[in-house]
Write a structure and sequence with these properties.
single chain; 506 residues; mainly alpha; 0% strand; globular
């Protein structure tokens, strides 16, 4: 049955899954006696399933050629741009007090796991609509998880171009198991492997949050947001929840999945080592999670030691924890703030450490995870190249002490990583200029651009001196942010690959 469904266009399959998912908020709204919202989701689901069935029947009798990876990449682009039009329909009809463009913005933000919201007051949105935002974000995280292995890896995109031997957008001979299977078969196998794992981890996290005292509905939304690194919350953040520090510790452990692919799978290795601690992405991530809070914390802690104020050791530990959790959250492009983050800011002496949060979000998480940003592997490739160049300044005739894979990583890999950095910087400059031209201030334009391109929506509320009112932006600015979020999720190299006519030829 699943194999038969996957023979249809990928965008049609995704639309059918979205229509089925609408039944969950419909049931939830019916349990809350919110019949208006329940009808909006139920009618949208029936309409979507009917349209999918009609289109499926219309094309079922045609002879279909094998779908290529570049066609799947095009379907993924359509999923992030066209599918939110359908996803926004029940949100628009259920809320009844907003424009359709605002509903479309919410769905693009959720599906790309950005998590930016136009409604700063969570109480304005009914619980079923919060559930729908969380479901769409969770679905977007699963989609990029599967696409990383089944679509981006064979095309050497999404960070895999740093370690691959082929050019970005082209298949490499190193993925022998991918070449033996068709694109449809590979998509089916990856979905059957990662789908249950993703669902199981979400269920475990939700159960652990409930054990720590969180309400079931809030625990479910936060669990889905953590696994998808979307940062969506029905109560304005986990610091407003009832789970306390116990819930933060649980979320902290599950956010580690966003640092490296090796935390949950070895099907797309980025290095020749299978040990998690030997993975450079995981090591750099842990170094940032431990190093940045210690740097922020050390000045005040040393001062407290000098004046014999060590009786505040409990507050010091709490502030250090708040820094570690928030750093990992923004590094993974989730955007949750710890309840102790205010204490951490006080101990660091920084009024608004927005620049640090922006930098962490720009770095991002690991390759083939749900995290956005530039990715830790590209940072590692540039680090290797820079270290080697510094060695050559001292010993110009020296020979690098590394195997062929490491040499390729610090040469060709660093070159491609540098190209990506330049493309990212140009995209950031372009989006900033356009937003500034549409009426936003320069500071707000930079924060909005980084939040969209790194898929870290909560930056709009945390990085600036004052929270940015997204609802007050012009319609043109909202559409620009939607385009930036899609660009940040798929990355510039994938968009360039889609625009290359040579890849679409037989």
């Amino acid at each position: 049955m699943i194999a038969r469904l996957l023979t249809f266009p990928l965008i049609l399959v995704l639309a059918g899954l979205a229509a089925l998912a609408m039944l969950l908020p419909a049931v939830h709204a019916l349990m809350l006696d919110d019949h208006s919202v329940a009808r909006a989701f139920f009618y949208s689901s029936v309409l979507g399933l009917a349209c999918v069935a009609i289109i499926g029947l219309a094309i079922s009798g045609r002879d279909r050629e094998n779908t290529t990876d570049i066609q799947h990449l095009g379907a993924l682009f359509l999923a992030y741009t066209a599918l939110p039009l359908f996803l926004a329909l029940p949100f628009y009809e259920g809320l009844e007090t907003t424009r359709f463009l605002n509903a479309y913005f919410e769905m693009v933000s959720s599906l790309t796991t950005t998590g930016a919201t136009l409604f700063d007051n969570p109480g304005r949105i009914p619980e079923p609509l919060h559930l729908w935002r969380g479901l769409v974000g969770w679905f977007g995280g699963l989609m990029i998880w599967i696409a990383a292995s089944a679509i981006l890896a064979p095309l050497n995109l999404g960070g895999f171009e740093v370690t691959a031997s082929a050019e970005p957008g082209q298949e490499a001979t190193g993925f022998q198991r991918f070449e033996r299977a068709s694109a449809i078969k590979r998509l089916q196998q990856v979905s059957a492997t990662l789908g249950p794992m993703y669902l199981g981890l979400t269920a475990i996290l939700c159960l652990l949050m409930m054990i720590n005292g969180e309400r079931a509905f809030v625990a479910l939304i936060h669990a889905m947001s953590t696994m998808a690194t979307s940062g969506i919350s029905p109560i304005g953040g986990i610091h407003n929840g009832a789970a306390g520090y116990g819930g933060e510790v649980v979320i902290f452990l599950f956010l580690l999945f966003a640092l490296s692919r090796l935390t949950f799978s070895t099907d797309t290795l980025t290095t020749g080592r299978q040990s998690l601690w030997d993975d450079p992405e995981f090591r750099i991530g842990i170094l940032l999670v431990l190093g940045v809070p210690l740097l922020l914390f050390s000045r005040h802690f040393i001062g407290a030691f000098d004046v014999d104020e060590m009786e505040n050791i409990g507050e010091a530990v709490g502030a250090l924890w708040g820094g570690m959790f928030t750093v990992l959250s923004f590094l993974s492009t989730t955007g949750f703030e710890s309840a102790a983050w205010e204490a951490a800011r006080g101990w660091s002496g920084l009024g608004t450490p927005g620049l640090i949060l922006l930098g962490l979000a720009l770095v991002g998480g690991g390759v083939a995870t749900t995290a956005g940003g530039v990715k830790l592997l590209r940072v590692y490739a540039l680090y290797l190249n820079g270290r080697r160049e510094m060695e050559r300044l001292v010993h110009p005739s020296s020979v690098g002490r590394a195997n062929s894979g490491s040499r390729r990583l610090r040469r060709q890999g660093a070159f491609i990583a540098w190209i990506f950095f330049m493309l990212f910087a140009l995209s950031l400059a372009l989006v900033t200029i356009v937003l500034a031209g549409l009426g936003q201030s320069f500071q707000e334009s930079i924060v909005l651009s980084i939040a969209a391109l790194s898929t870290t929506g909560p930056l709009t509320q945390s990085a600036a001196e004052a929270p940015i009112d997204l609802l007050a932006m012009t319609p043109a600015a909202k559409l620009v942010l939607c385009a930036a979020m899609v660009l940040g999720r798929l990355e510039t190299l994938a968009i360039i690959a889609l625009a290359n006519p040579g890849l679409w030829r037989d």
